[in-house]
């Protein structure tokens, strides 16, 4: 599966190993990279999946910036961002994101876009700073109950490895190996950055605290009322085994539950996509974001004071 980057014909951003697309901001003794383009509000904030970086979202960002200001960033350890303290949980990373937006003076209101594990951070951020968030797009997002429910399935399917069947959903960048210092190719730069030691350790830390992150999201329920689109995959990723089929059915049930978080929610199915909908069918992600931008602009004005 190839990664999607901004094509040269659309004014590709100039990046290198030593030159991130955005700027670096101190969030408490370590720096995170934030890249913002476009104008207008509410501001769209992208949080990537586990093992991913902002490089995967450049093409989508280039399209959305025509409709609103949009920011992507690298969590601690990924991309150009420094390593951060642990444990790497949703609560800590939502707080880091809030500090990052404050440091960059990117004032609310926000629309959050969370893919996979990034959906945990988006949900926790919205629950923690409800007066600053006016909409959300969850892209095949994690659900607070998924660890427990999928583990129950794995226990029931003795001898049928759910973990092995799930390998196809791992971000392909994390399977790459460093190949020296790439020169100029955005895809190679992204692969290099996310195959370095700090990114691997960031991924391991997020994985080891995955269940705790889900518990932190659930603890802050109920979810605040806002326009929400849940964009779910249409293609299975867990394989054609009994455990794989059961896990896929449970995943789709979890997606339906996410789409019931608010009274202004909608679920959309990306029929031709696996877990990485933003790579397989980016146009659906762009459409969902722009639809939420329009919907949020129709909502009553809310108190969104959050930047000093």
From TrEMBL:
A GO CC term attached to the entry: membrane
Domain AB hydrolase-1 residue range list: 49-288
Pfam families noted in UniProt: Abhydrolase_6
PANTHER family reported for this sequence: HYDROLASE, PUTATIVE (AFU_ORTHOLOGUE AFUA_2G14860)-RELATED, MONOACYLGLYCEROL LIPASE
Protein name: Pimeloyl-ACP methyl ester carboxylesterase
């Amino acid at each position: 599966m190839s990664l999607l980057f901004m094509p040269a014909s659309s004014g590709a951003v100039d990046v290198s190993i030593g030159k991130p697309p955005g700027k670096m901001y101190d969030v408490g003794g370590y720096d995170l990279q934030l890249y913002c383009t476009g104008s207008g509000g509410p501001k769209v904030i992208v949080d990537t999946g586990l093992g991913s970086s902002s490089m995967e979202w450049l093409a989508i960002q280039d399209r959305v910036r025509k409709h609103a200001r949009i920011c992507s960033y690298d969590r601690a350890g990924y991309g150009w961002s420094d390593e951060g303290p642990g444990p790497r949980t949703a609560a800590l990373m939502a707080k880091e994101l809030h500090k990052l937006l404050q440091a960059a003076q990117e004032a609310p209101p926000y629309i959050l876009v969370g893919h996979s594990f990034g959906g945990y951070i988006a949900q926790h951020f919205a629950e923690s700073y409800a007066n600053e968030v006016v909409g959300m797009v969850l892209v095949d997002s994690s659900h607070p109950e998924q660890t427990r429910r999928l583990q129950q399935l794995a226990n029931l399917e003795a001898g049928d490895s759910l973990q092995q069947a799930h390998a196809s959903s791992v971000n392909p960048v994390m399977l790459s190996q460093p190949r020296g210092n790439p020169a100029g190719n955005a895809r190679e730069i992204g692969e290099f950055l996310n195959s370095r030691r700090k990114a691997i350790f960031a991924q391991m830390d997020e994985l080891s605290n995955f269940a705790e992150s889900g518990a932190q999201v659930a603890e802050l329920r109920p979810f605040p009322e806002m326009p929400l689109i849940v964009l779910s995959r249409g293609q299975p990723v867990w394989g054609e085994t009994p455990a794989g089929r059961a896990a896929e059915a449970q995943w789709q049930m979890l997606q339906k539950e996410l789409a019931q978080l608010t009274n202004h929610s909608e679920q959309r199915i990306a029929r031709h996509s696996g877990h990485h909908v933003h790579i397989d069918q980016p146009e659906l992600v762009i459409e969902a974001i722009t639809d939420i931008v329009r919907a949020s602009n129709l909502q009553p004005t809310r108190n969104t004071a959050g930047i000093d």
